[in-house]
């Protein structure tokens, strides 16, 4: 019985799902580990990250935690948004997001989330939006190599043939052509290099979109 109880505890520990956090991307830098190897680091900052709402199965039909980031400008908020923040006991947040959690990971409203939520060496699932680049040709948008330079005058950066001839006579949907590049949703897996609780900074190994 004790062995079975221990297996159930281990299974419940790995099946639990904690809440995520919102953070601002500060920039990129280089840091060295204890082996002298240099790593590309993305620095993110948690500013006034708090739990603003809690979703339960009895009331909402699912379990989730709503997290807010930053302080919003009161002049740009309506009375309904301000009233909800007063009931929750938190300052109106600039950014809001919900994270699905399990029942044992529900956090009360008003709790502040810090970088101590993560530990160095932990893998995190980071999602964001890439930077808008404006209109780009096929070379800038899809990394086309372009045509040969020998004997080519004005067709070096052109896409080449785009349509079908004879029976089809159409351009297929999804054809890679020039257009607006970004912002696009991006998801990456990053490893926590280290955290700094004094300034609420988290250092992620690798590049983060945004």
Strand % is 25-35%
**Biggest sheet, open or closed, and with what strands and sense?**
5 strands, antiparallel
Q: Based on DSSP secondary structure assignment, what is the total number of beta strands? A: 10
Write the element-wise H/E pattern from the N-terminal end onward: HEEEHEHEEEHEEE
How many DSSP helices? Answer: 4
Biggest β-sheet: strands ordered side by side in the sheet: 1-2-10-9-6
Helix coverage percent of residues? 10-25%
Outline the low-pLDDT stretches.
Answer: none
N/C terminus separation: 51 Å
Shape: extended
Give me the secondary-structure category.
alpha+beta
Task: Summarize this structure briefly.
The protein is built from four helices and ten strands. The protein is of the alpha+beta class.
């Amino acid at each position: 019985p004790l062995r079975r109880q221990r297996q159930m505890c281990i299974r419940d520990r790995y099946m639990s799902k904690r809440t995520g956090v919102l953070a601002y991307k500060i920039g990129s830098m280089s840091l060295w580990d204890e082996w002298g190897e240099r790593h590309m680091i993305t620095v993110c900052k948690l500013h006034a990250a708090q739990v603003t709402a809690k979703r339960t199965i009895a009331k909402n039909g699912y379990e989730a935690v709503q997290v807010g980031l930053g302080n919003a400008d009161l002049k740009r908020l309506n009375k309904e948004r301000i009233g909800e923040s007063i009931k929750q006991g938190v300052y109106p947040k600039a950014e809001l997001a919900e994270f699905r959690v399990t029942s044992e990971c529900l956090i009360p409203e008003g709790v502040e989330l810090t970088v101590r939520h993560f530990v160095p060496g932990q893998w995190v699932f980071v999602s964001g939006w890439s930077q808008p680049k404006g209109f780009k040709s096929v070379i800038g948008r899809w990394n086309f190599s372009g045509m040969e330079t020998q004997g080519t005058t004005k067709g070096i950066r052109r896409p080449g043939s785009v349509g079908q001839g004879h029976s089809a006579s159409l351009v297929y949907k999804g054809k890679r052509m020039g257009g607006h590049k970004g912002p696009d949703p991006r998801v990456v897996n990053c490893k926590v290099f280290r955290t700094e609780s004094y300034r609420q900074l988290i250092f992620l190994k690798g590049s983060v979109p945004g």
